[in-house]
């Protein structure tokens, strides 16, 4: 049996030799005491890259978003977010359970943005009956909107409106560097009008673990306390931070290859009548199933040696990443051709 081509997510990537060497050689200390020089260096790098005062290394994107929710709000506050956002769809209800906020999901447009009218209409005026609408969260690239890269002008418009309406603004930038590469716009520029931004090292940047939450110094101080409360205070964690430093120095520009591979994959799959595939903007390929059952296609692809995930009732998702070469895409398309031939619809 051939080794499967794993396109389930960019989180499945394996650290390469050079990254592992950086991890092996990392100088470490107890980070809860602030003693880990490698973590301190990564946090300083991240803050600088994102144009914020300070940064905090956290275990995951989910933890970064949860800490952001906790640190920006009071229990009982209302948070405006996109209905298709990762925070609303895939974070186990942590906003309600742990941050004790009420989320108000607004329609995402196809490009991942939230309409300015919808934002403005959902901010509640001060009233004894009403919760305080204190936070707006945005997402870029937008995962469920097909990895769409939201340009700076749209980011600015949403965030500036949020501020005018008295909210803080957090950006879930799990794949912000994919947006930065696709739009040829620095990540700091995309996040410029947002108070805080989180991004994942463990996705397109190819690290085994970790995310960074960036923002003003006083916010990050509070976030550090909240991280400790959640059990996220880690000790000689420079072994993981070293991977992050390696990735920020070496793995950003190469994301363009993932986008080219995703485009080739989408074009190849889009040739079949059974599928509708929009041209991807970044590394996420959404396959709308127009003939047959998504679950059956998933099994047929897996049987042929291509792994994807279900993405809602009528869709599959494939994601390119650092371990997928242009040759792998050719092989994946050959295998998919075989699966299509073998699957009567
Ligand atoms: C993956 C992802 C996260 C969460 O990251 P984890 O490290 O898996 O917890 C948050 N937001 C978006 C948009 C994501 O795609």
Keywords:
alpha/beta; seven-stranded mixed beta sheet; 345 residues; four-stranded antiparallel beta sheet; 13 strands; binds pyridoxal-5'-phosphate
Topology overview:
Layout: E1 5-6, H1 17-24, H2 37-50, E2 54-58, H3 61-72, E3 78-82, H4 86-90, H5 94-97, E4 102-106, H6 116-122, E5 133-139, H7 152-164, E6 168-172, H8 176-183, H9 187-190, E7 196-200, E8 211-215, H10 217-229, H11 238-250, H12 255-269, E9 275-277, E10 284-289, H13 294-304, E11 306-307, E12 309-310, E13 315-319, H14 326-342
Helix pairs in contact: 1-11, 2-11, 3-10, 12-14, 13-14
This protein binds pyridoxal-5'-phosphate (PLP).
Pyridoxal-5'-phosphate (PLP) binds at residues 60-62, 65, 86, 139, 143, 172, 174, 200, 202, 211.
């Amino acid at each position: 049996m051939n080794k499967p081509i794993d396109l389930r997510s960019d989180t499945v990537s394996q650290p390469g030799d050079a990254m592992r060497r950086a991890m092996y050689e990392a100088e470490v200390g107890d980070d809860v005491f602030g003693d880990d020089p490698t973590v301190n260096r990564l946090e300083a790098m991240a803050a600088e890259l994102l144009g914020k005062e300070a940064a905090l290394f956290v275990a995951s994107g989910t933890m970064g978003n949860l800490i952001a929710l906790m640190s920006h709000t009071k229990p009982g506050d209302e948070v405006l977010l996109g209905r298709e956002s990762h925070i609303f769809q895939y974070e186990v209800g942590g906003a309600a359970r742990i941050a004790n906020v009420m989320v108000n999901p607004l329609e995402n447009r196809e490009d991942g943005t939230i309409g300015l009218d919808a934002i403005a209409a959902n901010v509640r005026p001060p009233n004894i009956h009403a919760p305080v609408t204190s936070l707006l969260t945005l997402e870029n690239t937008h995962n469920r909107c097909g990895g769409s890269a939201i340009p700076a002008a749209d980011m600015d418009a949403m965030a500036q409106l949020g501020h005018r309406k008295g909210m803080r603004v957090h950006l879930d930038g799990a794949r912000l560097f994919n947006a930065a590469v696709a739009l040829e716009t620095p990540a700091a520029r995309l996040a410029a009008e947002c108070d805080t931004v989180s991004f994942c090292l463990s996705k397109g940047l190819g690290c085994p673990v970790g995310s960074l939450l960036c923002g003003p110094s006083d916010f990050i101080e509070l976030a550090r306390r909240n991280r400790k409360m959640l059990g996220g205070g880690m000790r000689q964690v420079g072994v993981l931070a070293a991977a992050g430093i390696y990735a920020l120095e070496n793995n950003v520009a190469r994301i363009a290859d993932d986008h080219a591979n995703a485009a080739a994959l989408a074009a190849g799959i889009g040739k079949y009548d059974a599928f509708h595939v929009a041209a991807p903007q970044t590394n996420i390929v959404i396959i709308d199933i127009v003939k047959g059952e998504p679950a059956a296609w998933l099994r047929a692809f897996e049987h042929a040696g291509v792994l994807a995930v279900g993405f809602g009732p009528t869709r599959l998702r494939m994601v390119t990443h650092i371990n997928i070469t242009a040759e792998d895409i050719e092989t994946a398309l050959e295998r998919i051709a075989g699966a299509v031939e073998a699957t009567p619809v």
